[in-house]
Specification:
Elements: H1 3-25, H2 29-46, H3 52-64, H4 67-85, H5 89-94, H6 96-121, H7 131-141, H8 146-153, H9 160-190, H10 197-229, H11 234-255, H12 259-270, H13 277-280, H14 285-308, H15 317-345, H16 355-361, H17 367-374, H18 384-421
Helix pairs in contact: 1-2, 1-14, 2-14, 4-12, 4-14, 4-17, 6-7, 6-9, 6-15, 7-9, 7-18, 8-9, 9-10, 10-11, 10-12, 11-12, 11-14, 15-16, 15-18, 16-18, 17-18
Length: 423
Amino acid sequence: MEVLDFITLLVIMAAVFTLINVKWLKLPSTIGLMLLALGLSVFIILGEWVFRTLNELATNLMTEYDFSDVLFQVMLSFLLFAGALELDLRKLGEEKWPIFALATIGVVISTFFTATAIYYLLPLVGLPLDYIYCLIFGALISPTDPISVLAMMKKTSVSKNLESQIAGESLFNDGVGVVVFLTILSIAMNGVENFEPLHALQLFGVEVIGGMALGAAIGSFGLYLLKIIDNEHTEIEVLVTLSMVLGGASIAEMLHVSGPLAMVVMGLFVGRKGRNKELENVAGDYVYKFWHLMDEAMNAILFILIGLQVIVIHYEVDYFYGAAFAILSVLLSRFLGVGLPISVMRLKRKFPPYTIRILTWSGLRGGISVALALSLYETTTFNTRIVDVIITMTYCTVLFSILVQGLTVGKLFEKFNAANDHS
């Protein structure tokens, strides 16, 4: 199937599924779309003996267009830039230290605790993994997914400070999470004896600091161009921001720096929330309407793709027992990764009631974790069974995160709001 045909199919599915969700399911958009895509996948798998041709077509299609490539090379830049446009820069500055702590220390704590927990739990269901492979799973599942988190935040009502903590952490912890993942993956492929801590620090510096510097450079230049245009030609403003995203992604790949972090910083430069009057209206309304449309469309397609991934995952029944342990381990490690930094910071600043519980339960995982897991198929040095176990645990954790946590976190927000109203 040609690329245009594939895109056409996804857009048609997004339109049909959105209509079904709006008319009958009435669920949050991303959750409803993913459930419908997941239901279609299960129908195709269970009906293999009747619809063999359909099953083969769906499998070939999902294999031909690798989910990791589609997300990282096409969709992620658009989604992160669009998400960063909506952040309140002033509130983000007020919450910079909690965001920094959660996006760095929290990710590292979560990675190692998750790895240690499943290392001891998986043998109970006959799925022992070497610790290095447990660390790989811990690294790819620990960062919260900004796309899932931002989609959830649109449907909730909570204080601006806590909203900034949740959204800011999810946008910035990807850089740290990917560096940790790549470092551990390198150790697994090359051997512990060849690991150099200096190389890990260099990788962190180049990926994270380089990505943010690139985003600042392109963002400031783009802001300068928008000032010159001064709302006179809205179509040029849209083209400038589109060029920033496409050009920035290409340059980041060429320089081997973090593209996601570059997109976030660029979005913060252009965004209007929390800016002074001079900069608040640099970009016209049509720019924000365009990126809002891109965000909604890309989100719809992304969550459909997540639901369809079940077609290509190779699994056995005992993998799901391991996945249950993985879900419990990830939740507990998230609680520790959030609780320890927040508890230390509470010595010098006040956090509202339910903060740790909300940050724990709202830490959704999504397409980025699935994409990192599926990329392991490209590492030919790994045993296929090990990769299948990791991917199954990742996919089940993501489904639980989006469907269970995503649908219930609103109740926790209500308690948070009620507690603060009475305080």
